[in-house]
Amino acid sequence: MVIVMSEHASEDQVEKVIAALTQKGYDAHRSTGSTRTVIGVVGTSRTPLDPREFEIMPGVQEVVKITEPYKLAGRTFQQEDTVIRLGDVAIGGRNIVMMAGPCAVESEKQLDIIASSVRRYGARILRGGAFKPRTSPYAFQGLGEEGLGHLRKVADRHGLLVITEVMDTNQVDLVAAHSDILQVGARNMQNFNLLKELGRQRKPVMLKRGLSATIQEWLLSAEYIMAGGNRDVMLCERGIRTFENFTRNTMDISAIPIIKKLSHLPIIADPSHGTGLRDKVIPMARAAVAAGADGIMVEVHHEPEAALSDGPQSIYPEQFAELMAQLRIIAPAIGRTI
Q: Global pTM?
């Protein structure tokens, strides 16, 4: 359930409600907006909760039962959009954030060429895989810790933030030491041990939608991270597996406005994985922004024909420049900036 405090509730009244919940064995998650404070009640206890007990407490406006299985990620708990701030970069606000870079870090030189280009054209976050989960065990698996070092060094050189994937609980501290945002890949969306560990981190997490995950399953995975105490979670629509095989995946653009209605969390679109085809990346990025995405993640490579991973879906730097020019026309039409 959710306890909504009145607009003029004092800090002491809020703390007394939280203390009463804690005493009964529940976790109280506080969300303070511009006009009200909401306390989300999470967990199980031998002591049942009687809503009437809290409705009569000073400062309480109402007690609302949450019907959705996801509590903290839903709009009932928090009406206002979450904005994740990293320095001067805000994810989830009015500005649309661009994340760009190669699928895999191949060398410092390769990464530097790409980072220089995408920064010049407007990217704020450098993406690149150091650990690469591949369908084939014989495919390039990434440079590991060496790749993380290249990411951090090159990003700092060009004034970019870093986002990269973490695949296992034993990698979390290592990746967190080099990255500003921790990415959970589609294959790990329901790796609950990993999600719990990320809930203990204090760095933002981008949670990609699983290959065959429903929107509710996706939000419940976000709930695992948030229940651990990490509220800086963003979602990423990267295409789902359907019967259609013309594209690598089916990019579910409808998921963007659906998430916007159900959740306060920022949502990013990844048209590179969503389609797997270079010539489809720009059209789907345009559509995602028009549908309300808070950011776009694309794979960019200066020599995609020689890329060690996902060359066919990587756009050239000049195509990234073209995409940015087009998005700067679309964004103002829907009240956004880029």
A: 0.89
Cα angle 329-333-337, degrees, rounded to a multiple of 5 = 65
Q: Which of 236, 233, 230 is nearest to 293 (CA)?
A: 236
Asked whether residue 114 is domain-assigned, the answer is: yes
Q: Which residues contact 165 (CB under 8 A, 6 or more apart)?
A: 129, 130, 131, 132, 133, 175, 182, 183, 184, 185
Q: Which of 13, 34, 64 is the last residue of a domain?
A: 64
Last residue within a domain, chosen from 35, 64, 93:
64
Q: What is the pLDDT of residues 145-158, one digit of tens each?
A: 999 999 999 999 99
pLDDT digit string, tens, across residues 216-265: 999 999 999 999 999 999 999 999 999 999 999 999 999 999 999 999 99
pLDDT in tens, 179-203: 999 999 999 999 999 999 999 999 9
- For residue 73, being part of any structural domain is answered with no
The answer to whether residues 249 and 236 touch, using CB atoms and an 8 Å cutoff, is: no
Q: Return d(Cα 308, Cα 304) in angstroms, integer.
A: 8
